[in-house]
Amino acid sequence: MSIRSASAAGPAYQWCRALARSHHENFPVASLLLPGRLRDPVAAIYAFARTADDIADTPGVAADSRLHKLNDMAIALDSIEQEGTPDTLMFQALADTIRRHRLPLKPFRDLLSAFRQDVSKTRYSDFAEVMDYCRRSANPVGELMLHLTGQLSEHRLSLSNAICSALQLINFLQDIEEDYRNNHRIYLPVDEMQRFAVCEDDIEQRRNSPRFHDLIQLQIERAAELLRSGSPLGRRITGRFGLELRAITLGGMRILEKLRNRDDLFDPPRLTAKDRRRIVWCALKQGIQG
Question: Which of 119, 158, 177, 185 has the lowest tally of Cβ within 10 angstroms?
């Protein structure tokens, strides 16, 4: 099957861009910071990940039903691999993106693996299990971005993985109560909860105890170290993707600062318009400084 023209895939990409705009995200998605040629592919990748995540997170829907829908997404990927184009707008855009940019399918399958796990697994015995989830739920997005920009290397992928895993950990810290209330999930390692004498009832009852504070500070510092270790990538990546990557990293650091300083451990911090303006300015400044 020949690759569709950009105009033929236009309505499909338009749908993906609308989906990206309709969801609040702390970190930019297909934003104006990116070069124009990448905004549609990034929107298609985002739409795939967002759709799968929303399926896994839908409260009140039976696990079998959610797994069936995720399996349908896996079948659609198989169809793309066999040069088919599924009927839905999202997969039409994704098929065009995968073929036009020769993207590997493994990162997409890794994402589906993580979201299937979300349906059935609600506790993580230790940090290694959490990081294995991050490896499949977040890191594939960074890998796909490096493929899109033609800047993939083993070292850059390692830096990207650190950033993506850190951002996933930050999301967990922002959504502790929401994850527990909606899907009874806890991403805090069980062994560390036990070490700090924190129990599930503390989360259910929103107890801002000193021991819970200490547990959360450990998670914050761990995420911060990962983010710092990956931050050189934003200065090594060229062009406007480098700018967006610096902005994403600075946004993560700003969220971590808010997480450290909040009084209520269950109050999810968000980036304000002022935060975003400063982040873009600092990202531009870092690019000039090299």
Answer: 158
Q: What is the largest CA-CA distance in the chain?
A: 61
CA-based end-to-end distance of the chain: 44
DSSP summary character for residue 208: -
Quick check: 124 and 79 in contact, CB under 8 A?
A: no
Q: How many CA atoms lie within 13 A of 260 on its CB side?
A: 12
**pLDDT tens digits, residue range 211-226?**
999 999 999 999 999 9
Predicted confidence band at 238 (pLDDT cuts at 50, 70, 90)? confident
Does the predicted TM-score (pTM) go above 0.85?
yes
User: How far apart, in whole angstroms, are the C-alpha atoms of residue 64 and residue 6?
Assistant: 37
Domain ranges (residues) in the chain: 10-114
Looking at this protein, which amino acid is placed at residue 138? A
Rounded to an integer, what distance in angstroms lies between the CA atom of residue 6 and that of residue 42?
14
Q: The tokens of 172 are what?
A: 């967990």
